[in-house]
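Researcher: We plan to redesign the surface later, but first we want a full-length starting point. Tokens attached.
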């Protein structure tokens, strides 16, 4: 009887943390993407950001499916997202091309991260009504990351312009239905 109760409690605790484990995987992948960008391994960084996006997609699904949504999970998800879809893609694009612009390139890299943080904070204090306000940071981060593959094909000004546009889209008031 005692062993059964202990096993039952352990399974309940593991179930309750499943979504948070996926969220921490997202954060870890974003952290490694940053490290690999700093080491000059841009392609691996790109791959890790996209795998982080998969983990981000599944953490919310798992939380809803297992009915384990929590305020802690929501905050942890936002902190992970700023790393994986704010800092990691911005640094990848900065190291890949925006460094050529000097201070303006650095400014718009930080501006993108700041807009992403603002968007996440606004999301965390808003009601969950079936809509996103502004472009979700995951989408912006994936677009920025994907654009890295286009560096040989577009002029460097395109990437500066793109980072500005993605930044403003994240903080804009337009509404987008959640999928």
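Model: Full-length starting sequence:
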């Amino acid at each position: 009887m005692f062993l059964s109760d202990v096993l039952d409690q352990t399974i309940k605790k593991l179930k309750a943390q499943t979504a948070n484990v996926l969220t921490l995987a997202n954060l870890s992948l974003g952290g490694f993407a940053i490290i690999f960008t700093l080491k000059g391994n841009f392609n691996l960084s790109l791959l890790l950001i996209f795998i982080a996006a998969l983990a981000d997609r599944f953490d919310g699904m798992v939380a809803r499916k297992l009915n384990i949504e929590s305020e802690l999970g929501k905050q942890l998800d936002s902190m992970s997202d700023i790393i994986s879809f704010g800092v990691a893609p911005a640094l990848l694009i900065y190291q890949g091309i925006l460094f050529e612009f000097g201070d303006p390139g650095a400014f718009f890299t930080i501006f993108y991260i700041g807009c992403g943080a603002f968007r996440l904070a606004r999301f965390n204090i808003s009601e969950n009504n079936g809509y996103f306000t502004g472009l979700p940071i995951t989408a912006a981060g994936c677009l920025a990351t994907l654009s890295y593959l286009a560096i040989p094909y577009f002029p460097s000004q395109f990437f500066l312009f793109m980072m500005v546009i993605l930044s403003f889209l994240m903080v804009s008031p337009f509404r987008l239905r959640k999928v």
